[in-house]
From TrEMBL:
PANTHER family: ZINC FINGER BED DOMAIN-CONTAINING PROTEIN 39, ZINC FINGER BED DOMAIN-CONTAINING PROTEIN 4. Residues 18-36 have a biased composition (Basic and acidic residues). It comes from Solanum pennellii. Residues 497-579 form the HAT C-terminal dimerisation domain. It holds the Pfam family Dimer_Tnp_hAT. Residues 332-427 form the hAT-like transposase RNase-H fold domain. This is Zinc finger BED domain-containing protein RICESLEEPER 2-like. The keyword Metal-binding applies. It comes from the Eukaryota. It is found in: Nucleus.
Length: 594
């Protein structure tokens, strides 16, 4: 809406035959709205109209991430003809406008990130280009040809209004990089965030050591690395779940191939939740005696009773993972506390099954527990720190978990509290370094104020007559020594923001609680602690959410994107993320105010 009025198609395509204010006119950028067809301004107005239309199209395509070649689509052309028969958009020209819009928005994003008074977290995701034939999903190994993986760099931060932002700063195929590590560092420098990164989230099964180590060394040089990098590298949670499930399914791979035929289960995308549901379906049919009907399944290999027991054991263990995944990946924005709770629960269930009387289930549970244990040891600190920053959990919940799952062992809690206190101390020091001492001019002004008072009312010597001062420290207050001793024995040092926060009552747990809104309201009470909370809560614990979390392989990029030039792909993927909901609302409000 503009000035209280809803925008119409005419606003995006001037000169169209869409009625405006009850009037209609001939369409076309070359002769629409012209008072005099012989006017010398015809060429100039045509350029203005086409400029406006192209910019409108570029904003639409960038906001939606739609490839400019879509403008050549037959149905899209029909729409354009309806709006303006004289306007014939070219995908090549539209691509240039998209790149131009990207550069304009990039300058704004760089300014926002450079002026950000806080830290950001970075995620590095690799996407693999695959092909599929007419019969279903196929991996790249099934085809001959050139395939290029893509690297997506995304910056995550909580802005001054306590809104979580996730902005893509680079989306390029590996073929487009000359020096992948060097160009990545240059990208972070261009956006002014090379010394603001608090954590990097990467795939848990891919080698990103080089890029993580280079970013960490840059922070170390500038003394901006927190806790000596103890939680700097964050492993993707969805990856560890997929890795555990793949191992479980691999133990009964031949049985799964037989069951695939029994339940008419064809080729599908590489997502493990589908396999899990199909195995459960087969178990339900087996329990009903469906596969005892030999005439119906005489051409199939029916698993033996021992093999069905193995399937049951796998489904039970994978079910523990699936229960946690449903909570963590189907939530719009799962909190660190939800991660901490459900991962603890998963670990506890695997530990119980690791001592099962069933040899197969016991062996598999120990294998899965070993995989999960490495992840848990690595991620434990960052999960605990972020959980404390949720007023529904704080330290009390950690104590509860230690009592429930660790057998009354509270020793790890002291190291966690020590870590968060060290973090807070660093924030206090950094905040103090940002505060400037009083300048000489300020001191001069205060002296000038005293001089003005003296000039008007006379000096203190003029107002006060000399009096005799008794040279006795206790004159008029003869119990000062006793009072001083009392103060020394009873006075308590001032409480820190962390102490005050932890002493506040726990907020009752509700599913739809907005932790960012809570901190926004509480930030005046905790000016330093709130900055620490803002940075910790921006750390991404998984690269993907929703249905994508169940992939057992790397995700695919948008197929339409893979056919475009590298710069255009980067422009569309970046601007699509920059035009997020909050920024679009802010831009809309700005237009309305103007």
């Amino acid at each position: 809406m503009t000035n209280g009025k809803r925008k119409t198609l005419h606003d995006f395509f001037p000169g169209s035959d869409v009625s405006k204010k009850g009037k209609s006119h001939e369409c076309g950028p070359r002769n629409a709205n012209l008072r005099d067809e012989t006017s010398t301004n015809i060429g100039e107005e045509q350029i203005i109209y086409e400029e406006t239309a192209y910019r409108a199209l570029a904003k639409f395509f960038c906001q939606s991430g739609t490839p400019p070649k879509s403008v050549e689509d037959m149905y899209f052309r029909k729409l354009i003809v309806y709006l303006n028969p004289k306007f014939h958009p070219s995908s090549a020209i539209l691509s240039r406008y998209c790149l131009k819009l990207y550069e304009e928005e990039r300058a704004k994003v760089k300014e926002i990130l450079r002026s950000l008074n806080g830290r950001v977290s970075l995620s590095v995701e690799r996407l693999k280009y695959k092909q599929s034939n007419g019969f279903g999903y196929c991996s790249t190994s099934d085809f001959r040809g050139s395939f290029s993986d893509f690297i997506c760099l995304t910056v995550h931060f909580i802005d001054e209004d306590w809104k979580l932002r996730s902005w893509v700063v680079s989306f390029r195929s590996l073929d487009a990089y000359g020096d992948y590590v060097g160009e990545t560092i240059q990208c972070l420098s261009d956006f002014g965030i090379e010394d603001k990164i608090c954590a990097v989230t990467v795939h848990s099964y891919l080698d990103f050591d080089e890029i993580v180590d280079v970013i960490k060394s840059k922070l170390l040089e500038k003394k901006r690395l927190q806790l000596d990098g103890q939680f700097f590298r964050v492993s993707c949670n969805a990856d560890i779940f997929s890795s555990m499930v793949k191992k479980a399914f691999g133990m009964i791979e031949d049985i799964i191939n037989d069951i695939r035929l029994l339940v008419f289960w064809g080729k599908s995308l590489p997502v493990w939740n589908v396999t899990f549901h199909k195995l459960q379906e087969a178990l339900e049919l087996e329990a009903k005696g469906e596969y005892l009907k030999k005439d119906d399944y005489k051409d199939y290999d029916i698993p033996s009773p021992q093999e069905w027991e193995k399937v049951k054991g796998v489904c039970k263990l994978v079910g523990h993972v699936y229960t946690a995944a449903e909570v963590l990946f189907m939530e719009k924005r799962p909190s660190a506390g939800l991660y901490f709770h459900n991962l603890n629960k998963l670990r506890f269930n695997l530990m119980k099954d690791s001592v099962s009387s069933d040899e197969f289930a016991r062996s598999l549970a120990n294998i899965m527990l070993k995989k999960f244990g490495k992840y848990w040891t690595h991620m434990y600190l960052v999960l605990a720190l972020a959980t404390i920053m949720d007023p529904r959990y704080k330290v009390k919940y950690l104590e509860f978990c230690f009592l429930k799952y660790e057998g009354n062992d509270l020793l790890p809690l002291s190291s966690i509290l020590e870590a968060i206190q060290r973090l807070l101390d660093d924030y206090v020091v950094h905040r103090s370094s940002m505060e400037y001492p009083m300048s000489d001019s300020d001191s001069d002004n205060s002296d000038t104020g005293e001089d003005l008072i003296s000039d008007e009312f006379g000096t203190s010597e003029d107002l006060l007559e000399p009096i005799e001062v008794v040279n006795d420290p206790s004159f008029g207050f003869d119990c000062s020594d006793e009072f001083s001793k009392l103060i020394q024995t009873t006075s308590q040092p001032p409480k820190s923001e962390l102490d005050c926060y932890l002493e506040e009552p726990i907020v009752p747990w509700t599913k739809n609680f907005d932790v960012l809104s809570w901190w926004k309201a509480a930030s005046p009470r905790y000016p330093v602690l709130s900055k620490l909370a803002r940075d910790l809560l921006s750390i991404q614990l998984s690269l993907v959410t929703g249905y994508d979390s169940y992939y057992t392989d790397l995700r695919e990029p948008d197929r339409d994107m893979t056919s475009m030039e590298s710069d255009l792909v980067n422009a569309l993927m970046s601007t699509k993320s920059w035009f997020d909901k909050q920024r679009r609302n802010a831009m809309k409000a700005e237009v309305q105010n103007n």
